[in-house]
């Protein structure tokens, strides 16, 4: 899945940069402690400032900051590239305390929902290999659609639509949750996302039953 792959790349690079900066700072601190440890008679510098050293320091920090911002923006662009061909559409509505997934491109505007009690979890069915645009909104308060294993997360606001496009590269089923505290039963606001073959997905849409009927 592109989202998970991009997230992994960004996290790995930023972790390396953070680790490098940490060890450089630690090394400089250790050198200063050893050089000026108690018992060594080191003359105190009479200079109030070192403009060249400070300029190098600011330049290095600026270069790291520009690089990280540019890299993150580029990866974000990769993650949200416009799909070709146009993606399938699924309308996602969060409410206290469950989800509704609507497929407006079907003749009867198919909808899958539940009450998120026990095993009654709604299932978002998507095909593999096809881009799917999720359009998120909320019926009442702020919710957040989150699939931890796939690194997908986006907020759902009342009277507003957020969108993102995903493409599943393999079949499977993953548990999703609400990641924004939304009331007493927030903890049970779970759902399934299930990726099936394009042929099975088309049969499911036409039949009105199948893998999205229940968890």
* Helix content percent band: 25-40%
The end-to-end span amounts to 22 Å
Q: Which stretches of 5+ consecutive residues score pLDDT under 50? A: 210-215
Q: Percent of residues in beta strands?
A: 25-35%
Strand count, sense and closure of the main sheet?
5 strands, mixed
Mean pLDDT, rounded to whole units?
84
Rg from Cα: 25 Å
Can you put this structure into words, describing what you see?
The protein is of the alpha+beta class. 34% of the residues lie in helices and 28% in strands. It contains three helices and ten strands. It has helices spanning 2-35, 51-79, 198-207, and strands at 88-95, 98-103, 110-113, 123-127, 131-138, 143-147, 152-156, 162-167, 172-178, 190-196. Strands 3-2-1-5-8 form a five-stranded mixed sheet, with no helix packed on it. A five-stranded mixed sheet has the order 4-10-9-6-7, with helices on one face. A hairpin with a 2-residue loop joins strand 1 and strand 2 (98-103). Helix 1 packs antiparallel against helix 2 (51-79). It is elongated and about 85 Å long. The two termini are 22 Å apart.
List the topology elements.
Blueprint (H helix, E strand, L loop, with lengths): L1 H34 L15 H29 L8 E8 L2 E6 L6 E4 L9 E5 L3 E8 L4 E5 L4 E5 L5 E6 L4 E7 L11 E7 L1 H10 L8
Helix pairs in contact: 1-2
How would you sum up this structure in a few lines?
34% of the residues lie in helices and 28% in strands. The protein has helices at residues 2-35, 51-79, 198-207, and strands at residues 88-95, 98-103, 110-113, 123-127, 131-138, 143-147, 152-156, 162-167, 172-178, 190-196.
